[in-house]
Amino acid sequence: MKCYNHHDRDAFAICQYCGKGLCLECLDTRNDSILCKNSKTCAIKSDLVNQAYNQLSNNKNIFLAIGILFVIFGIIGLIMSLPLIANIPGVVGITFVIIGIIYIKNAYSMKNKV
Ligand SMILES: [Zn+2]
Ligand SMILES: [Zn+2]
Fold this sequence. Notes:
The chain is mainly alpha-helical. A hairpin with a 2-residue loop joins strand 3 and strand 4. Helix 1 runs antiparallel to helix 2. It is rod-shaped.
């Protein structure tokens, strides 16, 4: 593959946003990605991807926090209802713990995807 701008030069890398071949002089790095140096479109795309990535990692932390909260409330509910057998707070406690675990699992599967 040749550089998109310099047809006599071999491409050193490929723009992640438009797929053009780039020589060392034409490539730029932004938000840990490789893109065309003089392309506004590619720069905007790179920023959008970066924003989406940041949003996803925020969601991950929110999911994790919700999960941990549910587990804590569930365990408190369980402890408080231990002297009573087969009571409603106990069932609610178990449900809370399960919901919490699902949230935490989701948060971790998000982490693996990124
Ligand atoms: Zn590009
Ligand atoms: Zn070039």
